[in-house]
Amino acid sequence: MTVNHRAEAEKHLDTAARHLTEVPADMRIAEVAAALGQGHAALARSEETAATAADMNEALLSLRRRFNDTRTLVSKHVAEALASREKDRWSAAKDLTRALDEAHCNVDDLVDAHLADDGWDPRAAYKTPAGEGGWIGYAAEKDAVRDPWAPTPDLATQIPEPVRRVLAEYLAAALLSKGDARGVGQTITFALKHAGADLTPDIEKQITTLTLGADPSDPPF
Fold it and tell me: How far apart are CA 221 and CA 219, in angstroms?
């Protein structure tokens, strides 16, 4: 049973005050009641302090999560702008990275990771816009004009459903495996996505089916 220390403190202190005023000769009861009241008051303060600390800790964790989410979104934005062939966007990205550095909010590690994940050379991306100064960035598209800000056609809708199903099944199995098969699955999934045939939703559905079983409420794949 939980004790309400604040209520107990008020009760005992009220008893002490009443004995002091109504029965001044009985000082012993007043002293004991006052001591009990002070003890409960101390416990009540401790509980309030602990509750305040817990609330502050939760608020701090929430701020950290928001800060990390913001860093991720900003770094992705910067990475895509650095890989753009449009000079204004590229320059704006460099200016933003400098401003973030001055504000002690460096996101270079996340920007480099995004660039590398998308197939770009992080070192060359800061030197000159894509396609200029001899760097292309994306090795598989040396002769293509590629701008991550430009809309990408959704070629996945043009793939016949039986073919999509077979591809998704095999890629899901590969991504769930270990070793070389997983790497091959990631490579193929990445290549399809950048070719405009993003099968990620189909693959994720297959992974869920393989790991948890098919959802009986879902329509056939």
Answer: 6
